[in-house]
Amino acid sequence: MRATLNPLRLFIAGFDWSGRTGRLQLLVVFFMTLAPSAAFLLGQLYTRFPRWVDILLILVLGILTIPQIGHVLRRLNDTGRSGWWVWAALVPYTAVPLWLYLLFKGPSYARPSSELSTARSVGFVLTIFLAVLMASRVFWTPFTIPTGSMKPALLVGDYVIATVDRRLPERGDVIVFYSSVRGQMLVKRAIGLPGDRVQMADAVVLLNGEALPQTDAGLFTETMVKQGSMGLFPRCYNGAVGTGALCEKRMFTERLPSGRSHEVLNIGDTALDTTTEMTVPAGHVLVLGDNRDNSSDSRIARAAGGVGLVPQDALVGHVRRVLFSTEGASPWAIWNLRWDRFLEGVR
Q: Would the pLDDT of 270 be above 80?
């Protein structure tokens, strides 16, 4: 009997991990999963889908996870490879060559299904977990910190978790939002809410005519080396220092009217230390980076290529916790992990 290429039947067959899948069938499964994956990735990078489209794509990807991995194992059965190879399909980067190998690998003898029972059982449980994790993306989103605009709360190389919540934030919340001018996701701290009058005067925030108190918190220090995937050097209060030297910034604790506080950095005098007063309109929020002299934020108007005032419909979520952090250019370089930042809360 000719192998079915019906996508619906292939979807159902993907839950039977004891069967076999041919190359052409695996190719159909590949395109079944490629389409929503590409749509979701492009939506995150280059455009701004409505929230219901994001949720739909996430749920589709979650639903497809189990049969997708199931067909990888079925194809391994068909090529005579051990079922333990399925683990490679669950690891980033290694999944790509495995899929290519299985798509081009010719016919071979089939291993008895009984030899793969342990691999099927363990893999199936793990894949269900991954499917649930994928579906949970409806409620959270990951975000990588590529620049130092939010030091010291967030460092270059932090991988953070943001809860999806598009309600207007509270003053002092660290939020993720989409900048249509920049065409990318950004993370900043909410300082001004609708109706607030905000101004900078000599590096101090004036909120509704009152200065936010700043107390000296010493120095923030880091090593002068390239940071993150963008390979950017930090800027220093103690001038131009050589590679490997100590880079210092003045640090202050800034207190909001609600009593919440956070640390901000000062590198030196800049044009953005003093601004005109801005009144935050309804449905918007004014954001600032904690590393005030190294942040493009609401102090620069959108017409001038800056962030400007952030509309509520551009909000993505609230940053709650650092999942993990790395000092290197790649998050997979475990020797560069900052072990003390695992699951650290963001205030």
A: yes
